[in-house]
Amino acid sequence: MSSIQANSLGVIEPQLYRHAEAFLLQNGEQLHGYELVFETYGTLNAEKSNAILICHALSGHHHAAGFHALDDAKPGWWDACIGPGKCIDTDNFFVLSLNNLGGCHGSTGPNSIDPSTGEIFGPNFPNVVVKDWVASQAHLADHLGIQKFAAVIGGSLGGMQAMQWSIDFPERLYSAVLIASAAKLSAQNIAFNEIARQAITTDEDYCAGDYQQFDKNPEKGLMLARMVGHVTYLSEDGMKTKFDRDVKSGDFEQGANVEFQVESYLHYQGRAFTQYFDANTYLLMTRALDYFDPARAFDGNLTRALENTTAKFLVLSFSTDWRFSPERSQEIVDALIQARKNVASAIIESEHGHDSFLLPIERYTKVLSAFLQRSFAELENSAELLATENEVDS
Amino acid sequence: MRGDLALIATLINPGARVLDLGCGEGELLDHLQRDKRVNGYGLDRDAENIRTCVSKGVNVIEQDLDEGLDNFVDASFDMVVMTDALQAVKEPRELVRDMLRIGEECIVTFPNFAHWRCRAQLALKGVMPVSKQLPHSWFDTPNIHLCTFTDFEQLCAAESINIIQRRVVNANHQEKTFINWAPNFFGTYAFYRLGKSS
Lengths: 394, 198
Hints:
The complex is a heterodimer.
Chain A: E1 15-19, E2 23-24, E3 30-31, E4 34-41, E5 51-55, E6 82-83, E7 88-89, E8 94-98, E9 113-114, E10 119-120, H1 130-143, E11 151-155, H2 157-168, E12 175-179, H3 187-201, H4 219-233, H5 236-242, E13 247-251, E14 256-260, H6 261-276, H7 279-291, H8 302-305, E15 312-318, H9 326-338, E16 343-348, H10 362-393
Parallel strand pairs in A: 5-8, 5-11, 6-7, 11-12, 12-15, 15-16
Antiparallel strand pairs in A: 1-4, 2-3, 4-8, 9-10, 13-14
Chain B: H1 3-9, E1 17-21, H2 27-36, E2 39-44, H3 47-56, E3 60-62, E4 77-83, H4 92-102, E5 103-111, H5 116-125, H6 149-158, E6 162-169, H7 183-186, E7 189-195
Parallel strand pairs in B: 1-2, 1-4, 2-3, 4-5
Antiparallel strand pairs in B: 5-7, 6-7
């Protein structure tokens, strides 16, 4: 049965961008071209000024909204927010969403063939960082004729990309929305990523990263990594509300084989993840998270790192998010204020922890919608002004 | 624009860096951004106020004044404004100190608890004053640090704060000659423009 509703984008066809030239990465390695799979929603206007770029998080991909087939059980990962009349309104905006380089959903990554060897990259796929993603996203924008985005939006690792955009290409975005993100990971945050990586790399089926060659998949490790991740994406209160100590199966009286709901949830999520996510991509994505630190080049001074930005910023965080806490967002806000940049911030009350950024929480969608509507109106106004000036000139 | 905000706007120089504590719907900053090209930020904690500010393009930061202003560096603003909030914060003295640490100057406005109507309610009826400016009953009021003009000026003296300017107005934010006969008796609101000790 179709779950497509009136305000849905309907069936979306993914597209492929092929970058033929060599691409030099931040670590000095080079890719002999690459491919990015992407989707678009809404219509690009004649001036190509209404485009929004969506940057995905750790386990995200290009399929952010709509359905791939009429009988899909679930829409894209951010369908709650992207669509006609939704807070990222495709009646106004042309929305672009891609799978990042190094991903495992169709873009060039560890599962692709290395043209220099004719074999799968596997663990030899170069370490890409947020800056590389932004550079490759800029190529995709060039390809689509988008000189300047109306907004670059991302949650978590996606917010880091939006921030990097504002630093690397200040003239190519009008506004930046950083949701549940951080200017750099804390030691605690890196620690969780390392536990996840260890779970994968110590799985005997990991085969030093060459598991594909041996027709294996480090499922146990990947499952464990995802389970740890999920615990950190939820809050204690959220878990209490969702699972409490409810029992899925087994019997306390017998004292054996009791499975709590929370265990069942983690097993299910972990197992499902092994079916659609690649272990080498997971390692790559978590490293990109760990390495992100734009202030590093400025003696740790984030204000200086943001000095040349021109975007209008919206920084959102969630009250119970302890993986990317409101304090981390506040650091970004403080640096932006010190750098005299335009910024607005809100701390959304929610019990869903880090996962909140994917949920259609009323206050969250309202403030995001208000910000984007304002950006849209300002862009329309400046376009009209420009048109009038040109008339006067000619 | 609200009368008190119009008066404050006249005290702010074009292009100034302005921080508005408890900025509400961003009326002052919206006006200052368009009229005087200021680099302004407002702090507020009300969800609806924040959304309204965002839709106006006002730089609003969600922050509770009672949590302090430690995240703002010294001398980073030309003017720090706080309208009608002094009486509702937990630590008004620390906040005023912080305002002058962050700003070159600051503007503080608050309702006068020694206005004759307040005095009359307390003296004649023996009840806690309730007025248009202070509409809450004693048991549910957010105003936990009510003071008079005299009280505030004593605090400024104790803290060696320089009162650059004081303007006292009636309930309609108008200045009247008779108010200045006895400001602490006839004045409803006061605007204090404060500077560091000279």
